[in-house]
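Problem: given the chain below (286 residues), write out its structure.
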Amino acid sequence: MAGLSYFDSVVLGVVEGLTEFLPVSSTGHLTIAEKALGHPVDDPAITAYTAVIQLGAIVATFIYFAKDIRRLLAAWFTGLRRPEKRHDDEYRVAWAVIAGSIPILFVALIAKDLVSGPLRSLWVVAVSLILWGGVMWWAENVHSRRSAAGRVRGESTLTMKDGLAIGVVQCLSLVPGVSRSGATISAGLVRGLDRVAATRLSFFLAIPALTAAGLYEAVSERDGLRLLGTGPIVVGIVVAFVVAYASIAWLLRFVASNSLKPFVWYRWALGIVIIVLLATSVMGPK
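Solution.
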Protein backbone atom coordinates (compact mmCIF):
# COMPACT_ATOMS: atom_id res chain seq x y z
CA MET A 1 0.00 0.00 0.00
CA ALA A 2 1.04 3.62 -0.45
CA GLY A 3 3.11 5.40 2.16
CA LEU A 4 1.52 7.56 4.82
CA SER A 5 1.78 11.30 4.19
CA TYR A 6 2.98 13.70 6.85
CA PHE A 7 -0.42 15.37 6.79
CA ASP A 8 -2.08 12.02 7.51
CA SER A 9 0.36 11.30 10.33
CA VAL A 10 -0.31 14.67 11.99
CA VAL A 11 -4.09 14.20 11.75
CA LEU A 12 -3.91 10.68 13.17
CA GLY A 13 -1.49 11.80 15.90
CA VAL A 14 -3.89 14.54 16.99
CA VAL A 15 -6.84 12.12 16.98
CA GLU A 16 -4.87 9.58 19.01
CA GLY A 17 -3.67 12.15 21.53
CA LEU A 18 -7.13 13.67 22.00
CA THR A 19 -9.06 10.43 22.32
CA GLU A 20 -6.71 7.89 23.92
CA PHE A 21 -7.64 8.79 27.48
CA LEU A 22 -11.08 10.28 26.92
CA PRO A 23 -13.91 7.71 27.20
CA VAL A 24 -14.84 8.01 23.52
CA SER A 25 -12.65 5.25 21.95
CA SER A 26 -9.36 6.21 20.35
CA THR A 27 -9.42 3.12 18.12
CA GLY A 28 -12.90 4.00 16.93
CA HIS A 29 -11.90 7.59 16.14
CA LEU A 30 -8.69 6.48 14.45
CA THR A 31 -10.70 4.05 12.34
CA ILE A 32 -13.03 6.87 11.29
CA ALA A 33 -10.09 9.20 10.58
CA GLU A 34 -8.22 6.55 8.59
CA LYS A 35 -11.31 5.89 6.49
CA ALA A 36 -11.85 9.62 5.91
CA LEU A 37 -8.22 9.93 4.79
CA GLY A 38 -8.75 7.15 2.25
CA HIS A 39 -6.89 4.31 3.96
CA PRO A 40 -8.21 0.72 4.16
CA VAL A 41 -8.93 0.39 7.89
CA ASP A 42 -8.49 -3.39 7.92
CA ASP A 43 -5.03 -3.25 6.33
CA PRO A 44 -2.50 -4.86 8.73
CA ALA A 45 -0.06 -1.95 8.36
CA ILE A 46 -2.75 0.62 9.20
CA THR A 47 -3.89 -1.49 12.17
CA ALA A 48 -0.28 -1.66 13.36
CA TYR A 49 0.15 2.10 12.90
CA THR A 50 -2.90 2.67 15.10
CA ALA A 51 -1.22 0.69 17.88
CA VAL A 52 2.28 2.09 17.41
CA ILE A 53 1.36 5.77 17.69
CA GLN A 54 -0.20 4.93 21.06
CA LEU A 55 3.38 4.83 22.31
CA GLY A 56 3.37 8.63 22.17
CA ALA A 57 0.37 8.74 24.50
CA ILE A 58 2.03 6.23 26.81
CA VAL A 59 5.21 8.29 27.05
CA ALA A 60 2.99 11.23 28.03
CA THR A 61 1.49 9.07 30.77
CA PHE A 62 4.93 8.04 32.03
CA ILE A 63 6.04 11.65 32.27
CA TYR A 64 2.82 13.03 33.76
CA PHE A 65 2.62 10.32 36.42
CA ALA A 66 6.38 9.84 36.88
CA LYS A 67 6.30 10.56 40.63
CA ASP A 68 3.31 8.27 41.17
CA ILE A 69 4.91 5.47 39.17
CA ARG A 70 8.17 5.72 41.10
CA ARG A 71 6.26 5.75 44.39
CA LEU A 72 4.17 2.70 43.50
CA LEU A 73 7.18 0.76 42.24
CA ALA A 74 9.16 1.61 45.37
CA ALA A 75 6.27 0.54 47.60
CA TRP A 76 5.85 -2.71 45.65
CA PHE A 77 9.52 -3.71 45.80
CA THR A 78 9.72 -2.69 49.47
CA GLY A 79 6.65 -4.78 50.25
CA LEU A 80 8.14 -7.82 48.53
CA ARG A 81 11.20 -7.60 50.78
CA ARG A 82 9.54 -6.47 54.00
CA PRO A 83 6.26 -8.17 55.03
CA GLU A 84 5.38 -5.40 57.49
CA LYS A 85 5.07 -2.96 54.56
CA ARG A 86 2.47 -5.06 52.75
CA HIS A 87 -0.36 -3.26 54.51
CA ASP A 88 0.65 0.10 53.05
CA ASP A 89 -1.89 1.68 50.69
CA GLU A 90 0.58 2.15 47.85
CA TYR A 91 1.63 -1.49 47.98
CA ARG A 92 -1.99 -2.55 47.53
CA VAL A 93 -2.50 -0.06 44.72
CA ALA A 94 0.57 -1.42 42.93
CA TRP A 95 -0.81 -4.96 43.14
CA ALA A 96 -4.19 -3.72 41.88
CA VAL A 97 -2.48 -2.31 38.78
CA ILE A 98 -0.53 -5.53 38.22
CA ALA A 99 -3.62 -7.71 38.62
CA GLY A 100 -5.63 -5.44 36.33
CA SER A 101 -2.99 -5.54 33.60
CA ILE A 102 -2.84 -9.32 33.22
CA PRO A 103 -6.24 -10.18 31.60
CA ILE A 104 -5.93 -7.93 28.55
CA LEU A 105 -2.43 -9.18 27.72
CA PHE A 106 -3.74 -12.73 27.33
CA VAL A 107 -7.01 -11.82 25.63
CA ALA A 108 -5.27 -9.49 23.16
CA LEU A 109 -2.97 -12.31 22.01
CA ILE A 110 -5.80 -14.81 21.71
CA ALA A 111 -8.16 -12.42 19.89
CA LYS A 112 -5.55 -10.62 17.77
CA ASP A 113 -6.83 -11.85 14.39
CA LEU A 114 -10.42 -11.05 15.33
CA VAL A 115 -9.58 -7.56 16.55
CA SER A 116 -7.40 -6.65 13.56
CA GLY A 117 -9.75 -8.30 11.05
CA PRO A 118 -13.55 -8.61 11.30
CA LEU A 119 -13.89 -6.12 14.16
CA ARG A 120 -12.12 -3.39 12.17
CA SER A 121 -15.39 -2.17 10.72
CA LEU A 122 -17.22 1.14 11.08
CA TRP A 123 -20.41 -0.81 11.78
CA VAL A 124 -18.71 -2.27 14.84
CA VAL A 125 -17.43 1.16 15.86
CA ALA A 126 -20.87 2.78 15.57
CA VAL A 127 -22.73 0.07 17.48
CA SER A 128 -20.04 -0.08 20.19
CA LEU A 129 -20.09 3.70 20.66
CA ILE A 130 -23.83 3.58 21.28
CA LEU A 131 -24.03 0.42 23.39
CA TRP A 132 -21.08 1.20 25.65
CA GLY A 133 -22.39 4.73 26.01
CA GLY A 134 -25.41 3.11 27.66
CA VAL A 135 -23.12 1.20 30.02
CA MET A 136 -21.32 4.42 30.95
CA TRP A 137 -24.68 6.13 31.65
CA TRP A 138 -25.68 3.23 33.93
CA ALA A 139 -22.29 3.33 35.71
CA GLU A 140 -22.71 7.05 36.35
CA ASN A 141 -26.17 6.46 37.83
CA VAL A 142 -24.78 3.74 40.11
CA HIS A 143 -21.99 6.07 41.18
CA SER A 144 -24.40 8.95 41.84
CA ARG A 145 -26.54 6.82 44.16
CA ARG A 146 -23.49 5.59 46.07
CA SER A 147 -22.02 9.08 46.28
CA ALA A 148 -25.27 10.45 47.69
CA ALA A 149 -25.19 7.71 50.32
CA GLY A 150 -21.52 8.42 51.12
CA ARG A 151 -20.40 5.00 49.92
CA VAL A 152 -17.66 5.82 47.42
CA ARG A 153 -14.01 4.92 47.96
CA GLY A 154 -10.72 6.66 47.24
CA GLU A 155 -7.55 5.35 45.62
CA SER A 156 -6.06 4.24 48.94
CA THR A 157 -8.78 1.56 49.27
CA LEU A 158 -7.91 -0.23 46.02
CA THR A 159 -7.46 -3.99 46.25
CA MET A 160 -6.25 -6.72 43.92
CA LYS A 161 -9.88 -7.76 43.52
CA ASP A 162 -10.73 -4.26 42.28
CA GLY A 163 -7.81 -4.30 39.88
CA LEU A 164 -8.64 -7.74 38.50
CA ALA A 165 -12.35 -6.94 38.04
CA ILE A 166 -11.57 -3.69 36.23
CA GLY A 167 -8.85 -5.43 34.21
CA VAL A 168 -11.34 -8.03 32.99
CA VAL A 169 -13.69 -5.28 31.82
CA GLN A 170 -10.74 -3.59 30.12
CA CYS A 171 -10.59 -6.56 27.74
CA LEU A 172 -13.85 -5.39 26.16
CA SER A 173 -12.01 -2.31 24.94
CA LEU A 174 -10.35 -4.47 22.30
CA VAL A 175 -13.62 -4.01 20.40
CA PRO A 176 -13.26 -0.74 18.42
CA GLY A 177 -15.70 1.84 19.74
CA VAL A 178 -15.89 0.59 23.32
CA SER A 179 -12.99 2.72 24.67
CA ARG A 180 -10.37 1.46 27.06
CA SER A 181 -10.75 4.43 29.38
CA GLY A 182 -14.54 4.27 29.09
CA ALA A 183 -14.48 0.61 30.08
CA THR A 184 -12.07 0.96 32.99
CA ILE A 185 -13.52 4.17 34.43
CA SER A 186 -17.05 2.75 34.23
CA ALA A 187 -15.93 -0.46 35.93
CA GLY A 188 -14.22 1.58 38.64
CA LEU A 189 -17.38 3.58 39.28
CA VAL A 190 -19.47 0.41 39.53
CA ARG A 191 -16.89 -1.02 41.95
CA GLY A 192 -17.55 1.99 44.20
CA LEU A 193 -14.49 4.14 43.43
CA ASP A 194 -14.80 7.91 43.18
CA ARG A 195 -14.28 9.44 39.73
CA VAL A 196 -10.72 10.62 40.36
CA ALA A 197 -9.60 7.23 41.72
CA ALA A 198 -11.27 5.38 38.83
CA THR A 199 -9.68 7.72 36.28
CA ARG A 200 -6.19 7.54 37.79
CA LEU A 201 -6.39 3.74 37.86
CA SER A 202 -7.45 3.85 34.21
CA PHE A 203 -4.26 5.78 33.39
CA PHE A 204 -2.10 3.34 35.36
CA LEU A 205 -3.69 0.35 33.60
CA ALA A 206 -3.05 2.00 30.23
CA ILE A 207 0.71 1.91 30.68
CA PRO A 208 1.35 -1.87 30.45
CA ALA A 209 -1.57 -2.53 28.09
CA LEU A 210 -0.74 0.08 25.46
CA THR A 211 3.02 -0.32 25.76
CA ALA A 212 2.72 -4.05 25.10
CA ALA A 213 0.31 -3.47 22.18
CA GLY A 214 2.51 -0.85 20.56
CA LEU A 215 5.74 -2.84 20.86
CA TYR A 216 4.09 -6.07 19.70
CA GLU A 217 2.65 -4.42 16.58
CA ALA A 218 5.93 -2.63 15.86
CA VAL A 219 7.73 -5.97 15.78
CA SER A 220 5.09 -8.24 14.21
CA GLU A 221 4.09 -5.78 11.47
CA ARG A 222 7.48 -4.16 10.88
CA ASP A 223 7.40 -4.89 7.14
CA GLY A 224 4.02 -3.23 6.69
CA LEU A 225 5.03 -0.29 8.86
CA ARG A 226 8.14 0.18 6.74
CA LEU A 227 5.87 0.77 3.74
CA LEU A 228 4.12 3.57 5.58
CA GLY A 229 7.41 5.40 6.09
CA THR A 230 9.56 5.95 9.18
CA GLY A 231 9.17 9.73 9.13
CA PRO A 232 5.36 9.80 9.29
CA ILE A 233 5.36 7.18 12.04
CA VAL A 234 7.76 9.25 14.16
CA VAL A 235 5.71 12.41 13.53
CA GLY A 236 2.51 10.60 14.52
CA ILE A 237 4.08 9.41 17.79
CA VAL A 238 5.43 12.88 18.66
CA VAL A 239 2.13 14.62 17.90
CA ALA A 240 0.22 12.00 19.90
CA PHE A 241 2.58 12.61 22.85
CA VAL A 242 2.08 16.38 22.92
CA VAL A 243 -1.69 16.26 22.54
CA ALA A 244 -2.11 13.34 24.97
CA TYR A 245 -0.16 15.15 27.69
CA ALA A 246 -2.58 18.07 27.51
CA SER A 247 -5.55 15.69 27.42
CA ILE A 248 -4.45 13.93 30.61
CA ALA A 249 -4.24 17.18 32.55
CA TRP A 250 -7.64 18.32 31.29
CA LEU A 251 -9.43 15.02 31.97
CA LEU A 252 -8.20 14.79 35.57
CA ARG A 253 -9.50 18.28 36.25
CA PHE A 254 -12.79 17.56 34.49
CA VAL A 255 -13.69 14.32 36.29
CA ALA A 256 -12.96 15.87 39.68
CA SER A 257 -16.29 17.70 39.52
CA ASN A 258 -18.17 16.46 36.43
CA SER A 259 -19.89 13.25 35.36
CA LEU A 260 -19.11 11.23 32.22
CA LYS A 261 -22.55 11.85 30.73
CA PRO A 262 -21.39 14.59 28.29
CA PHE A 263 -19.13 11.96 26.74
CA VAL A 264 -22.11 9.59 26.52
CA TRP A 265 -24.14 12.13 24.55
CA TYR A 266 -21.18 12.62 22.23
CA ARG A 267 -20.79 8.85 21.73
CA TRP A 268 -24.47 8.43 20.92
CA ALA A 269 -24.48 11.32 18.46
CA LEU A 270 -21.34 10.10 16.68
CA GLY A 271 -22.61 6.53 16.54
CA ILE A 272 -25.87 7.63 14.96
CA VAL A 273 -24.06 9.81 12.40
CA ILE A 274 -21.82 6.89 11.38
CA ILE A 275 -24.80 4.56 11.03
CA VAL A 276 -26.58 7.08 8.80
CA LEU A 277 -23.48 7.50 6.63
CA LEU A 278 -23.06 3.75 6.31
CA ALA A 279 -26.75 3.07 5.66
CA THR A 280 -26.83 5.68 2.88
CA SER A 281 -23.56 4.37 1.38
CA VAL A 282 -21.88 7.73 1.82
CA MET A 283 -19.14 5.82 3.64
CA GLY A 284 -18.08 2.20 3.42
CA PRO A 285 -17.52 0.05 6.52
CA LYS A 286 -13.84 -0.69 5.74
